[in-house]
């Protein structure tokens, strides 16, 4: 399987790192959280509770969630409309964490993700990629950082997007989400035994990306398809 699995808690830099690694290696970036966020958005719009597992499973079956674009420039479409920005709203992120707790929902999403990974070279990030979704991936990375560093990054992202939120509130929400992700019964957040841990607290994005690309090159992975290699 031509895949790099990147896991870690919220704010560790997974999406940014995975997107740039995909660009460097000529692979497709797959943001697994986007699937849960898109479903959470549709549930919110349809008046379906994020705690109603049966209704959410039906909603997933009725939905068309697609990733469009190449490399790291991937857009998210829900039933034909672009929701790339809409699913990044804070309330959708919180709802997505609740949606992702349900076994029926996770089973459906995981099946879709595995299908995508079988078709082409991918860099996939999330919270259970190396442990549940793609346990056979040859390269597994676990990104982490201090809660304060992760909260600062998230706060900056929200501010740049025009959301007026207090740093203290962002930090509290992040800590609560960590607790929920690590203690949920279905596919909790944890490091795969064979994953390489990288603490991003004091590292730049390019340092982390460079380390992962170097690792891929050292292992002579088949997904290294960038022209000139």
Automatic annotation (TrEMBL):
Q: SUPFAM superfamilies from the entry?
A: P-loop containing nucleoside triphosphate hydrolases
What GO biological process, any one, is recorded here? pyrimidine nucleotide metabolic process
Where does the UniProt annotation locate this protein? Answer: Cytoplasm
Listed under catalytic activity are: CMP + ATP = CDP + ADP; dCMP + ATP = dCDP + ADP
Q: Which GO terms describe its cellular component?
A: cytosol
Q: Which Pfam families match?
A: Cytidylate_kin
| Residues annotated for ATP binding in this entry | 8-16
Q: Which residues form the Cytidylate kinase domain?
A: 4-216
Keywords (alphabetical) are: ATP-binding, Cytoplasm, Kinase, Nucleotide-binding, Transferase
Top-level EC class:
transferase
Q: Which family does it belong to?
A: Belongs to the cytidylate kinase family. Type 1 subfamily.
What name does this protein carry? Cytidylate kinase
Q: Give the organism the record lists.
A: Hydrogenibacillus schlegelii (Bacillus schlegelii)
Lineage here is: Bacteria, Bacillati, Bacillota, Bacilli, Bacillales
């Amino acid at each position: 399987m031509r895949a790099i699995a990147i896991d870690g808690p919220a704010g560790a830099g997974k999406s940014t790192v995975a997107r740039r690694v995909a660009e460097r290696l000529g692979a497709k970036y797959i943001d697994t959280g986007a699937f849960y966020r898109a479903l959470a958005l549709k549930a919110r719009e349809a008046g379906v509770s994020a705690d109603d597992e049966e209704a959410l499973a039906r909603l997933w079956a009725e939905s068309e969630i697609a990733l469009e674009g190449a490399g790291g420039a991937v857009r998210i479409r829900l039933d034909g409309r672009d929701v790339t920005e809409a699913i990044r709203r804070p309330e959708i992120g919180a709802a997505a964490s609740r949606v992702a707790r349900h076994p029926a929902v996770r089973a459906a999403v995981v099946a879709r993700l595995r299908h995508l990974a079988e078709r082409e070279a991918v860099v996939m990030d999330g919270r259970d990629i190396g442990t549940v979704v793609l346990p056979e991936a040859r390269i597994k990375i676990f990104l982490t950082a201090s809660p304060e560093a992760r909260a600062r990054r998230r706060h900056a992202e929200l501010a740049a997007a025009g959301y007026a939120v207090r740093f203290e509130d962002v930090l509290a929400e992040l800590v609560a989400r960590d607790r929920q992700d690590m203690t949920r019964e279905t596919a909790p957040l944890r490091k795969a035994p064979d994953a390489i841990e990288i603490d991003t607290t004091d590292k730049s994005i390019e340092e982390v990306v460079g380390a992962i690309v170097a690792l891929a090159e050292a292992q002579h992975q088949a997904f290294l398809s960038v022209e000139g290699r």
